[in-house]
Amino acid sequence: MMEEVLLARIQFASTTLFHFIFVPLSIGLALIIAIMQTMYVVKKDEIYLKMTKFWSVFFLINFAIGVVTGIIQEFQFGMNWSAYSRFVGDIFGAPLAVEALLAFFLESTFIGIWIFGWNKLPKKLHLACIWLVSIGTVMSAFWILAANSFMQNPTGYVLQNGRAEMNDVVALLTNEKLWVAFPHTIFGSFATGAFFVVGVSAWYLIKKRNVDFFKKSLAISLVIGMLSGLGIAFTGHAQAQYLMHAQPMKMAAAEALWEDSGDPAAWTLFAKIDVENRETTKRIDIPYMLSYLTYSEFKGKVQGMNALEQQMIERHGEGEYLPPVKTTFWSFRIMVVTGGTLLGLGALGLFLMFRKKIVESVWFLRLLVVGIFLPFIGNSFGWIMSEMGRQPWVVNGLMKTADGISPNVSAGQILFSLISFSTIYTILGIIMVVLFVKFIQRGPEEQPEEDVSATDPFETGGAGHAVK
Amino acid sequence: MPLSDIWFILIAVLFIGFIFLEGFDFGVGMSTKFLARNDLEKRVVMNTIGPVWDANEVWLITAGGAMFAAFPHWYATAFSGFYLPFVILLLAFIIRGVAFEFRNKVDSKAWVKTWDWAVFIGSILPPFLFGVFFTSLIRGLPIDGDMNMYASFTDFVNVYTVIGGVTFVLLSYLHGLLFIGLKTVGELRERANATARKVYALTGVFLILFIIFTYLDTDAFTDHGAILIPMYGLAVILYGLLFFFLKSKREGLSFTMTGLVLIIIMANFFIALFPNVMISSMDPAFNMSIADAASGDYSLKIMTIVAFTMVPIVLAYTIWSYYVFRKRLTGDKEHLEY
How far apart are CA A364 and CA A114, in angstroms? Predict the structure, then answer.
C-alpha cells in the first residue's frame, strides 16, 4: 500500500508541476498579447500588430502543451485517487465541472477563432476574441483554485453519507483561502508572462536587434511585471496571515518552528533543521519579521509544531501529523527570494527606463534574461510549499492522503503510467525549449509581415504562427 | 424527474456532442494518412478542423468533469477501473494535440513525418478506445460490492468490444471524410467523397455486426428492447439513406446521416445503461444505479443552475464559430488562414 501511495503522489506531483510550467505562462502571455493587440487597434500602429504576432508564436506553442497536460490533470483524480474522488466529488467536482463549462469552452473556442480569424472578422471583434481567451484563462484559474482551496481549508460542506457533501455554495466560493490564493496565483502568472517578454526583449536589446520593437515590448512587459510583482508581495502577505489561523501547522513547518516562537516572532532566513531530534539550529533571524508577516504588526507569537501536533492528536487520534519540514521550509524561502528578486528587477528596470538608460545597461539586461526563469521557480516552489505543507492531509483535517488512493490500481500500473507520462513530459519539455530558442533566434523580422495569408500557406515554415 | 436523472441525461448529451464533433476530427486526422497525397493536401485537411478541434475536445473534458461532480462513484469506479486504457487514451490525446501545433514549426522532413504519425495515431486510437469503453460499460464489468472494478484483459478486449471499437473508428472516418467533402473544393473534395463511398460498405457491415453483438452479448435488448429496437432500426434506416445521398452527392445530407448515426449509437449506450451507470458482471446486486452514484441534491441543484445557464451560451458561440469558418478551404491564399 505504501508503494502505491508513494507512486501515486510522485505521479500527481510530476503532472501538476509540469502542467504548471505552461499554465502561468499562458495566462500571462494571453493578457500581454491582448494588451498589445488593443494598442494596435487603438493606435493603428503596425508595430503593435507585429508585436502581437511575434509573441503569439510562443503563446500558442505553450498553450498547446498546457491544454494536453491539463487533460491528464482532470483524469488523474479518478484514475489514481478514486477513494479521494468518492469522498469529495460532491463538492470538489463541482468547481471542476464549472471550470470546464465556463472557462475551457470559452478559451478553446475563441483561441481557435482568434488564430484562424485574422482576416475573417472585423478588427474589434477579432480583438474581443483574444480578450475572451484571456478572461477564460483567468476564470479557469479561479475555479481550479476554488477546488484546491477546499483541500486546504474545507468550507461549505457537511459530512454525510460517508463523504463531504456541499451544503453552502457561498461558503465554498467565499473560502478565505481562495481569495488569497487566487490573486496570488494570478499575479504570479502575469509575472511569468511579463518576465518572459522582458527577458527575451532584453536579449534582443543586448544584441541590438530590432531595438525599437523590443524597447516597446520591454516597456509594456516591465510595467505589467512590476505591477504583478507588487501584487505577488501583497497577496503573499495575505496568504501568510491566512495560514497563521487556518493552517498553522503549515506555517510552523515553513518556519521550522518546533516550540512556540517568542513574542515578537523573528523570521528565519536560514537554518539547519534536524527533523529527527526536532530541533532547528544556526538560525539567521530577521527580528519582528514573522510577527509582521502573520499579524501585520510587530508583535504576536507563532505556535510551534510540537504544540500543534499535540492538538491534532487530541482532535484526530494518534498518528503522524508533521508535514515534510525541510521541504516546506526551503520551498517557502525559494519562493520568497524569487518573488523579491522579481520585484527588485522590475523596480530597477522601470527606474532605468524612465532615465532612458536601459538600452545601454547591458549588465542589467543580462540579469533580465536570467530573470525569465525566476517566476517558473517561484511558481513551482510555491505549489510545493502549499501542497507538501498540507501533508499528511489530502483534505485538511478530513482525509489523509494515504486514504485517498485507488484500491484497485496496482503499483505496477501506476509505475507504467508514471514512466509513460514522464517520458512524454521530458520530450515535450525539450521540444518546447528547442522551439522557443529557434523562434527567439529567428526574430520578428522573419515573422509574417502583415496578414499571414499573404505568405504561401503551403510552404513548410512559411507562416509563422498557428501552423496547424 | 430527480436531478440525478437530469444529470445522467446531461452527461449523455455531452458525450453525444463529443462523438458528433470529435468524430469528424478523428476522421479528419485519419484522413491525413489515408486520403491526403502530399504535404499540401495534408495541410488543407488539417486546416478543415484547425479552428474547432480544441473546443470539440472540451466536450469530453466537460463530460469527465460532470461525471466527477454529479456522479463521483461513477467517475471513481470507471476512471480507476479503466486505468491502462485511459493511460493510452491520454497519451493519444497528448500527441495529437501538440502535433497540430508543432508539425510545421521545423523545416525538416523527419520532424513533419513524426507529427503526421502523431496526428494519425492520436486520431485512430481514441475512437477505438471509446468504442471499447462504452461497449464494455453495457456488457458489464467486474465491479465488487465496494464499487471497485478489477478488470482483466478480456473484460476490455473481446469480440464485442473490438467490434464496438472498430465500428467507432470506421464511423468516425466516414464522418470525417464527409466533413472534408463539405469543407474543401476540387480534387480533394471529389476524392473525399469517393473514398466515403468506398468505406461505406465495410462500415455498414460493422454497424450491423455491432448491433447483432449488442443483442447477443449484453442485456440491453432484454431490458430496453422497446426503445432500443426502434432506435437501432432508425440508425440502420439512416445509414441506408446515406447510400443514396452519397450516390447523388448530397454532401450536407450525407454528413448529417453519419452524424445522426453516431448520435443514436451514443445515446443508445446511455439508454442501455439506464437506470444504472455501471453494470457489474459479478452480481447484479453490485450494479451501480444512478441514484447510488450521484452527488447530493444540493450540489446537483447548484450545478443544474450553472449548466442550464451556460450550455445555451456555449452552444451559441460554438455555432457562431462554425459560422465564421463556414467557407470551403479552396487552397488559395484568400481562404486558407495559415
Answer: 36
- Asked if B72 and A90 come within 8 Å (Cβ–Cβ), the reply is yes
User: Model-level pTM?
Assistant: 0.92
Establish, for the pair of chains A and B, how many residue pairs have beta carbons separated by less than 8 Å. Answer: 275
Return the closest-CA partner of residue A379 out of A338, A330, A433, A430: A338
User: What is the residue range of B187's domain?
Assistant: 3-324
What is the distance in angstroms between the Cα of A84 and the nearest Cα belonging to chain B? 9
Q: Chain A closest CA to B39's CA: distance in Å?
A: 8
A97: nearest CA partner in chain B:
B65
Cis peptide before A264 (omega within 30 of 0): yes
Q: B42: which residues sit within 8 A by CB, 6+ positions away?
A: B32, B36, B116
Q: How far is B12 from chain A (nearest CA, A)?
A: 15
A22: number of Cβ within 10 Å: 24
Say whether B296 and A90 touch across the interface (CB within 8 A): yes
Phi, psi at residue B157, to the nearest 5°?
-110, 105
Q: Residue B73's closest chain A neighbor by CA?
A: A86
Q: What is the pLDDT of residues B73-129, one digit of tens each?
A: 999 999 999 999 999 999 999 999 999 989 888 888 999 999 999 999 999 999 999
Total structural domains within chain B: 1
Whether A452 sits inside 8 A of B62 (CB atoms) is: no
* B232–chain A nearest CA distance, Å: 31
Which pLDDT score, from 0 to 100, does residue A1 have? 67
HSE toward the beta carbon, residue B116, CA cutoff 13 A: 21
Place of cell 506553442: A61
In which residue are the cell numbers 527577458 written?
A199
User: For an interface test with B, which of A82, A418, A427 has the most B Cβ atoms less than 10 Å from its Cβ?
Assistant: A82
Q: How far apart (Å, rounded) are the C-alpha atoms in residues B78 and A28? A: 36
Among chain A residues, the shortest Cα distance to B305 is held by A98
The Cα A113–Cα B103 span in angstroms is 20
How far, in Å, CA of A285 to CA of A448, rounded? 55
Q: Which residues of chain A are within 8 Å of residue B311 when distances are taken between CB atoms?
A: 101
Cβ–Cβ under 8 Å, residues A405 and A399: no
Q: How many residues does chain A have?
A: 468
> Which of A85, A456, A466 faces B72 most closely, judged by CB atoms?
A85
pLDDT of residue B206: 97
Amino acid at A459: E
Q: ipTM greater than 0.90, yes or no?
A: yes
User: Angle, to 10 degrees, between the axis of helix B53-70 and the axis of helix B72-81?
Assistant: 120
CATH at residue B209: 1.20.1630.10
Q: Which three cell numbers stand for residue B6?
A: 437530469
Report the b/e string of B320-338 with b at 16+ CB within 10 A. ebeebbeeebebebebbbb
Residue B335 lies in a domain: no
Return mean pLDDT, chain A.
Answer: 90
